[in-house]
Each structure stands twice: as structure tokens, then as C-alpha cells.
Specification:
The protein contains 24 helices and no strands. It is an all-alpha fold and 511 residues long.
Length: 511
């Protein structure tokens, strides 16, 4: 472990900017002050590779963990261990005997994307060896959290633990252990991160796919971008940064698991090319950026400025993409600037197409396209285009396929948001688009049964045949469907159903 000053790291975390340090041992106040002054002088003329590495570690820790009260109140030994883990993980991640790919391939090369894909496969070929450890960690965290804590602390201290994005921050974000698992809960991460779940999830998901190593992206620029996007999501019941993180994790899970299946020989086709992975994860991250909490139909009916700006056509989806790229083009956020012009254009094309397909008016088109994949009428790039469009669109409506406690919470939150729009519609004399917007007539139980039966189930039954990695979602979908059906059977009168919907809504925060 290279020297790190604990007192200065705490100070850096409080302002989320500087990193100062020199000693991993517990220092007294005078030693801390001297060390800080020395480090400040050295950082003014930062020339050595070691100091550069320490700066990167400090930026990573302070931007992802430094704002939390748990970090600020941590003992020096805990911060020492965190710094040591992050440093060792980053050294392992960025040190590879495999050939470094050339990401600045000249435009016009006819096989540009094929060459890039081949190089990425070489870079990622050694990533299967820690899967058993990850499965064991998930099992231990679920069944016996105390055992997980003891084993993890002991194996980290002995240097035997394989460090990866799922466990390197385990002291502060235990929910990340399930990042590669369908039982992951964004609500747990939101609580642990104290309100910045998208920043943390996006960064660790990008690391899980080696985006920074493979594409030579500047991690600090990405962190700036992720924080700006996270902050730009409005504080709404449903369309908030937690929803974006949930959709991004679902997208990640399907991509990650599909890649793992291909490596193990369980799948004979590459469903997601490397540029697809980048574009889809980015799309999921920004797909509801600055969402105002109203539907496209409401914005058009009320003559909202957004509807005027985007000519009543996929108003929200147009806005999400446009505003996200405005954030991305700022010099301090533009982590994709290393892409060649043609790759940049291709990336932007895929992102726009993907986010547009999250508009629910395209849902039936998406399901129909999936049927073409199943009957063999499309192949090659057209096949992958359909998979791309379906992935983020279905991730966006995937909460009925999550575990029951998560699904109920999301159901209550979207209902609360719909009711708010319905109240405004009533005030302005606008007819309700559907009963789900009317808090006086809606039956939440029936609404969820209808949503699952007529929207989600049909789409996912086809999707899992095209993307087998999504198979775990069907089990939870069936469980959630039975849950609502049982409640509908027990509470059969209209008044009881209305009362149940109001109770679920009122208690949504506690679910």
C-alpha cells in the first residue's frame, strides 16, 4: 500500500475535489498537518506516476463514497482498508498482458467495427475466473450477512480476495455485491449511497464491462457526467435517478449474462457487439433524463413548451436524448471524445434509436419485431438492431419481473405519479387518458394485473427466447401476477379495491 494521509482524505471527501495523503498508519494531529502541507506542495507540481495514481484513487473514492455519512464517520483503519482495496483493484484491472487495442482506427476502414470487436474479445477473455466467487458472495450476503462480512474482511486482509466492481466498495455499498444478479435492488443502493444510486451504479457497471480499460475513457470525465445526469433527474416518485439506475442494471444484467453464456459456449451468437454495449448502457442511463412527471399525451394536450419544441412527436424521448447530449458535450463531461468521428456518429445513432423506442407507442412494434427474430425472417445486423431496441425498452418496463417487494414499491410509485397528473387534468378540465390517472376510480390491483397480462408478459415471453439471459424474469413475473390475482380474489368489492389501492399508495415509502 502506497502512503495515504487519512485526515486529508476525509477533508477531500467533504469538498469532493482534492486528495492529499502520505501515511496509512493512524497519525496524530501534528503529523496530519505536516503531511497535508507536504502533499499540497507536491500536488502543485504533480509529475510522478505514483502521485497521479493516488490522485485517481482519491477522485474515485471521494466522488463515489466521500459524500456519505458512513464514510465521514469511519475509523481510520476502515478508510485505510478501502484505499488499499481500491488501489489493488485498479492495478489489477488496468494491468494486463493482453495486447492494447487501437481505439483510434482511421475512419473509412471497411472492417473498423469488426477489428474493434475482435480486440475487445481478446481484452475480455480472462473475466470468467471470478464468477464462482461472485455467486458465493451473493449467496452469503442473502443467507447470512454476518458470515459474508467476516469472510470478506478476512480474505481482503489476507490478500486472497479477488477484487471486482461488485465487492471493492463492500464496506459502504453491500448491495453492489448483487450487481450481476437479477435480485439486485436499486432501493438498497439508493439508501446506502444517500441519494446518488445512478452515479455509483453507472460507474461500477461501466467498470464491470471494462469500458475505461477497453475504450481508454477518462474515468474522471465519466464521473463528472454521471453526477450531472444523476442530479438532473427530477425528484419524482417514479421517473427519478433510482428508476434510471434500475433500468441500467437490468440492461447490464442481460448484456453481462449473455456475454458470459457466449464465453461458456451456452450461446452460439454474439447478441451485443462492443459498441452496442456502450450505447445501450448509456441509453439506459439517460433514457428518462429531466423527466417532468407527465406523459407525452398530457404535454401535447396542454400545449407544453416541450410539445411545441418537439412538434408533438415522442416529446419526452426527444428531450431526454437532446438534454443528455448537451451535458455530454461539455468539456468536463465528454468522456467519449476519444472515439473517432465515425464511431461517435454510430454511437449517437444507436442511442437516439434506442431511447426513442422506449416510447410506449412503439411497444407493439417491438413485440412484432421480436416475433420476426423467432421465426428466422431476420438475421445479422437487422437481428441485432431488434435486440438493441428491445433491451432498453423492456428494461424500462421490467419492474413486474423483479422480486415482489421491489415490484410493489415501483407499482405504488408510478401510481402516485399518475394520480398527480390526473389531479391536474381534473383541475384543467382535460379528460383522463385512462382510469389509472383517476385516483377516485382507479383500481390499482386490476391495473397491475392488466399491465402484466397485456403489456409485460407477452413481450417477455418472446424476449427470453431471443435473449435467454432474461429467463429469471419470468419466475418473478409469474409470482407477481399471482400476488395481484390473490389480492383481487380476496378483496372483490369495488370499495375494498379502492381502499386497498389508497393504502398501498399511502404506504409506498415503507414497502
Amino acid at each position: 500500500l502506497s502512503p495515504v494521509c487519512l485526515g486529508s482524505l476525509r477533508r477531500a471527501a467533504s469538498i469532493n475535489a482534492e486528495y492529499m495523503g502520505d501515511n496509512t498508519r493512524t497519525l496524530n494531529a501534528d503529523q496530519n498537518e505536516d503531511s497535508i502541507k507536504s502533499k499540497l506542495q507536491r500536488l502543485t507540481w504533480r509529475n510522478s506516476h505514483i502521485e497521479s495514481e493516488e490522485m485517481e484513487v482519491a477522485q474515485f473514492i471521494t466522488k463515489l463514497v466521500g459524500h456519505t455519512s458512513k464514510f465521514k464517520n469511519s475509523k481510520d483503519a476502515a478508510i485505510c482498508q478501502l484505499v488499499a482495496n481500491v488501489k489493488r483493484w485498479r492495478q489489477q484491472m488496468f494491468t494486463s498482458s493482453l495486447p492494447t487495442p487501437n481505439f483510434l482506427i482511421k475512419d473509412g476502414h471497411k472492417d473498423q467495427l469488426a477489428i474493434l470487436q475482435e480486440k475487445m474479445v481478446l481484452m475480455n477473455k480472462d473475466d470468467l475466473y471470478y464468477e464462482k466467487q461472485t455467486e458465493r458472495e451473493v449467496r452469503e450476503l442473502t443467507e447470512n450477512p454476518a458470515l459474508f462480512e467476516r469472510r470478506t474482511r478476512r480474505t481482503f486482509a489476507s490478500g486472497k480476495k479477488i477484487l471486482r466492481p461488485t465487492n471493492v466498495l463492500y464496506q459502504f455499498y453491500k448491495s453492489l455485491v448483487k450487481l450481476h444478479d437479477w435480485e439486485f435492488s436499486i432501493f438498497d443502493l439508493a439508501e446506502e449511497t444517500e441519494g446518488t444510486p445512478l452515479t455509483v451504479a453507472a460507474t461500477m457497471i461501466f467498470h464491470s464491462h471494462h469500458m475505461f480499460r477497453n475504450w481508454s475513457f477518462d474515468e474522471n470525465l465519466f464521473l463528472n457526467f454521471a453526477k450531472a445526469i444523476d442530479k438532473g433527474y427530477n425528484d419524482l416518485p417514479y421517473h427519478n435517478s433510482s428508476h434510471a439506475g434500475d433500468v441500467m442494471q437490468a440492461t447490464h444484467y442481460w448484456i453481462y449474462t449473455s456475454h458470459k453464456s457466449f464465453q461458456q459456449g451456452a450461446c452460439d451468437i454474439v447478441l451485443y457487439e462492443e459498441l452496442d454495449k456502450l450505447a445501450l448502457l448509456f441509453s439506459a442511463m439517460v433514457h428518462d433524463y429531466k423527466h417532468p412527471g407527465f406523459t407525452n399525451q398530457f404535454l401535447v394536450a396542454t400545449g407544453h413548451d416541450l410539445a411545441i419544441t418537439y412538434n408533438d412527436q415522442s416529446v419526452l424521448e426527444n428531450m431526454h436524448v437532446a438534454e443528455a447530449f448537451k451535458v455530454l458535450r461539455k468539456p468536463n463531461n465528454n468522456f467519449i471524445k476519444v472515439l473517432s468521428p465515425s464511431l461517435h456518429a454510430r454511437f449517437r445513432e444507436v442511442v437516439i434509436d434506442t431511447v426513442f423506442k422506449t416510447d410506449m407507442k412503439f411497444h407493439q412494434h417491438v413485440v412484432y419485431d421480436l416475433s420476426k427474430c423467432l421465426d428466422g425472417s431476420v438475421t445479422g445486423e437487422e437481428y441485432r438492431t431488434i435486440v438493441r431496441r428491445c433491451t432498453v425498452h423492456l428494461a424500462d418496463i421490467s419492474h413486474p419481473t423483479r422480486k415482489n417487494s421491489v415490484h410493489i414499491k415501483w407499482s405504488s410509485k408510478i401510481t402516485e405519479e399518475f394520480y398527480h397528473q390526473g389531479d391536474l387534468e381534473r383541475e384543467q378540465g382535460i379528460p383522463h387518458q385512462m382510469p389509472i390517472f383517476d385516483r377516485h376510480k382507479n383500481n390499482m390491483v386490476k391495473a397491475q394485473i392488466g399491465f402484466i397480462d397485456f403489456i409485460v408478459k407477452t413481450a417477455f415471453m418472446s424476449f427470453v427466447q431471443v435473449v435467454p439471459a432474461a429467463s429469471p424474469s419470468l419466475d418473478y413475473l409469474l409470482e407477481n401476477c399471482k400476488y395481484w390475482q390473490s389480492r383481487e380474489t380476496r378483496k372483490s368489492t369495488v370499495n375494498q379495491r379502492r381502499r386497498e389501492s389508497r393504502i398501498l399508495l399511502r404506504n409506498s415509502i415503507r414497502l
